[in-house]
Amino acid sequence: MDILQLEKPLHELSKRISELRLAAEQSAHIPDRQQDTRGLNEEISILENKFELLAKEIYTNLNSFQITQLSRHPNRPYTLDIINQLCTDFIELHGDRNFMDDQAIVTGIAQFRNRRVIVVGTQKGRGTKENMKRNFGMPKPEGYRKALRVMALAERFGLPIVTFIDTPGAYPGLEAEERGQNEAIAKNIMVMSRLSVPIISVVVGEGQSGGALAIGVANRILMMEYSIYSVISPEGCSSILWKDGSQADRAANILGLTAEVALKNKVIDEIIKEPLGGAHWKTKEAIESIGDAVEKNLVSLSKMSKDELKQDRIKKYFKIGNVQNMPAISPFRVDKAPVAAWDESWEDVESSMGLN
Question: Are 202 and 294 in contact (CB under 8 A)?
């Protein structure tokens, strides 16, 4: 199991508690060692209380970069983990019907708590081999086009869409740009804004850049407590601003990428609480919390008509940021009537450019 620096004291306590529990179980089967078992159970209880107090102390004082590290933990629940626990009858749909099947995005139809839904999510891998297969959770254009194809099915059959976001961003490689990465992301944003079915997006880990926005235009955007959502990664921001990727911790504090800041700025609608220590400590419990939040919002959105869903989505995005009405500025001269280029003399051109 990967251990972050801030978690080391907790892992040491957890390891000690596990050892004591094993010893207590063994002692319980030996008649002459009942007294030892009671002593071990008392010590376990003391250490469990200590663990809880220490965890609360650590996780209530996290800075933005520490939350970023937690959001990238390889043992956090990924899209397929969530689908396998919350959904039944999942039928995965492959390919964009144009180029190939991008394994960095998972799409399909599933039964979620007595509701048929379309599921779309970015998928990372665990271990080198699976990460290579999933391209480290960085989709290429064909991944976004696959997502778009499946979302078109949702529109056709009136099925709600649930998306799970966990990506460092869209793949920045040359071949992705050649196949229209920007166009694929822009088209997804445009189409999702016009769909007449309920859309719920959940940021479960990293939500970085256009790679997250391409499947994140929704009626309700939810974030896990220790996930992040930002226009760029802290490392990328640091490299651009200070030409030094090692200042990622400084960049993370400036970006305002935590769930708490996103909720304050009305970028998201709800924060999903994680178990003490983060979702990677109690994965099943964390996934159930995701399921409860998604179900609650699906029930709310299902009461809206198609037009109401579209208007709800429009109003949501108009609330983000401030819009100021300014007088329109004409790109043409207004002090005299325009002259067709072929009728304009060279002297007039020189005069308009200040050359004479």
Answer: yes
Query: What backbone phi and psi angles, to 5 degrees, belong to 49?
Result: -65, -40
The answer to whether 163 and 199 are in contact (CB under 8 A) is yes
Q: Which of 118, 100, 122, 121 is nearest to 110 (CA)?
A: 118
Among 201, 250, 213, CA closest to 68: 250
pLDDT at 354: 57
β-partners of residue 118 are: 109, 161
Report the distance separating Cα 27 and Cα 34, nearest Å. Answer: 7
Cα–Cα dist 129/300, whole Å: 41
Q: CA dist 135 to 2, 37, 125, 183, Å?
A: 20, 50, 8, 20
Instruction: Round to whole Å and give the CA distance between 282 and 189.
Output: 34
* Spatial distance between the Cα atoms of 209 and 219, rounded to a whole number of angstroms: 19
How many of the other CB atoms lie within 10 Å of CB of 170? 27
Task: Quote the Cα angle for 128-134-138, to 5°.
Answer: 110
pLDDT digits (tens, 9 = 90+) for 302-354: 999 999 999 999 889 888 866 667 676 555 545 555 555 555 565 665 565 55
Q: Left, alpha or beta for 251 (phi > 0: left; psi -120 to 50: alpha)? A: alpha
Which of 160, 115, 114, 204 has the alpha carbon at shortest distance from 301? 160
Q: What is the DSSP string of 24-73?
A: HHHHHT-GGGHHHHHHHHHHHHHHHHHHHHHHHHHHTS--HHHHHHHHT-
Indicate the SS3 state at residue 96.
coil
DSSP secondary structure code for residue 180 in this structure: T
- What is the Cα–Cα distance from 77 to 25, expressed in whole angstroms? 30
Q: What is the pLDDT of residues 124-139, one digit of tens each?
A: 999 899 999 999 999 9
